[in-house]
UniProtKB/TrEMBL annotation:
GO terms for cellular component: plasma membrane. Keywords: Membrane, Transmembrane, Transmembrane helix. This is Calcium/sodium antiporter. One of its GO terms (biological process) is intracellular calcium ion homeostasis. Residues 5-143, 189-328 form the Sodium/calcium exchanger membrane region domain. GO terms for molecular function: calcium channel activity; calcium, potassium:sodium antiporter activity. InterPro entries: K/Na/Ca-exchanger, NaCa_Exmemb, NCX_ion-bd_dom_sf. NCBIfam families: calcium/sodium antiporter.
Amino acid sequence: MNDALLIAGGLILLVAGGELFVRGAVQIAERMGVSPLLIGLTLVGFGTSTPELVTSVKASLADSPGIAVGNIVGSNIANILVILGLAALITPIAVGRGALRRDGTIVAAVALAFTGVSLFGTLDRAVGTLFLLGLVAYVAYAWREERRGEPDHAAAFEKAQAFEEVHPSGLHATNASAPGAGWKGVAISVGFAFGGLAVVVLGGGLLVDGAVGLARGLGVSETVIGLTIVAIGTSLPELVTSVIAALRRHADVALGNVLGSNIYNILGIGGATALIAPTPIPAAIVAYDGWVMLGVSLLLLLVARTGWRIGRREGAGLLALYALYVWSIWPAA
């Protein structure tokens, strides 16, 4: 029971702290004159992934590679099978051909890169550096595409747009001439950013402690807990934003949110975790779960190309596949 409370409390703090961090960081950047496009592609895009980042780093530092790496791989699997499945059940998703060819291909490519790296057994600093450079290159590419006014938005842009749909007015700083927009306003924004980051770090610690305790109590490997409970938990922000986008009949944004999240998870979360705290990749992920992540990434490309939409039937099928996946890795009683 205590472990479950630690997990629940950790998830609440991760989500709340992540939102405070993004809000403060965005307001600081706006006061510094940074363009809204760059803010969306960097601060909002990467900031919404802080729960996954902090959880994986904390787990790696705590010598729990199953949770650290399982969180990354499990989140990507859940994003496609659970989040897209639910969004498609609510509202069939129209698929932009250009966006799928561009971002869908990148999602498959980074999943393949992770699978290849996993064969060497370790996320080391060299891999982390390459992954982070890959993320920088992707963000620069997305920024150029948006500046050119391409009709199909980049997934990184739609990841930020999905988050801002949930916070239509709460992210942005006040007008420079408005009361409180001076040093007091700056101090508030800085307080949001650093306070949110502190809350996220605290929540990540609670989640990791609870996940480790739960695994020991149930006699289940930390890798299984990381791939399922932790991964679903840290993906809650993406789940909420995608479901709200689907309810508002903006299901295409939900697709971009998932594609962007999967790119950020591997290149950003995987890269930062490897750079800060190099960690071994559990044998189970090397042998099975990494290939499942690659398989569902390729499956998404196939499903999305059938009529250039993901309908309710496909959504139900994705959810059923996730149930089958969890059944396949969860040990029998």
